[in-house]
Amino acid sequence: MRAIDQTHDPALKSWVESANRPAGDFPIQNLPFAVFRRAGVREPFRCGVAIGEQVLDLAALAALHPLEGQAQQALSACAQPALNGLMALGRGAWGALRQGLSQVLRAGAAHADRAAQALVPQSGVELALPARIGDYTDFYTSIHHATAVGRLFRPDQPLLANYKWVPIAYHGRTSSIGVSGQPVRRPHGQLKAQGAEAPRLAPTERLDYELEVGVFIGTGNPAGEPIGIDQAEEHVFGLCLLNDWSARDVQAWEYQPLGPFLAKNFATTISPWVVTLEALAPFRSPWHRPDADPQPLPYLDGAEMRSAGAVDLELTAWLETARMRARGAAPERLSCANFRHSYWSIAQMVAHHTANGCNLRPGDLLGSGTQSGPLSGEAGSLLELTAGGRQPLGLADGEMRTFLADGDRVILKGRCARPGFVHIGFGEAVGIVLPAA
Ligand code: CA
Question: Ligand 1 mean position to 157 CA, how many Å?
């Protein structure tokens, strides 16, 4: 587990004034990474760190040689158009770079005037995917989501027998993962109406979002060498927000017996900022399994994981319809959940994924699966919020939704807060629904 240290000190302020505003996502205690370039300028993408409303250009900063040793080496890896180089360096380098960047950005820093030349306003940048994602695996770690969805698809047996023993997942598609701002074309698929003789190919009528957390793998493992539960988080670089767009009518027809395919592989949207496990150290919670449930097998259990294996991360999903946009109305909140309710932890996802010797690589992405809380308003998808489309949601100005309409913009947000610490945010993962081709 990462330790709480002076980089989390709530008294720390930055010489970048916008980082000290109380409502912001990116105070000096956060320091999340992204890949960016100045908008409208033909220049290479490179890594940056968010500080207030600015991006600190790490390629430009590296050229100033403000750090030493391992921290400077890690900084030099950030001149690349992806975070994979930094991810591969491992936890020692990530910690050293965080310490160094915290020193460079804090109020009273010696060379603040030089570092200020490496700032670019966030309003003027174009963001790219933070890493070259070799493989993407989507888990199903929220028992509340699994139970609610299971009830809709299989009323007689909502939760299958393996759920409480195996962290269930499927291998997803990386080619259609996009960064926030991604346009999502309403996909065609096989739809089979109840009682219909045969399916037909048509645009989905049940397009949905899924409110998820993305887990970026830092260092990988050699094929054939599982990662033990106590080492699992050493291999994790950080977290982002993830929207696993889903076509529910396609899913209902195609999912048995091999799981999701075309219902989910047309688009996945992630937030551009990766919040490191170092930044999340103050926001960890105990992980526990109800006494009445099967306890995890030994390879999925550990004292450290039990003491702080969960992450207290509030997740929200917001909807802005075309009509709201035209009226200038604010987006409406649909879902509010918390990652700390997850039935399986990040460490368990990593340990299970590699238990057979499967090798993970720097930049691999794991999805947590839709995060739904125990209460009805905490559901992380429209499928659950509308009881499978049977109970339409009323929006503020009289509009109704069962599933997403063309022109809808879905916005995911994440925020960690705890008394005694400065709260940190994840920015946004935004996608807009375009009409079918
Ligand atoms: Ca999913």
Answer: 20
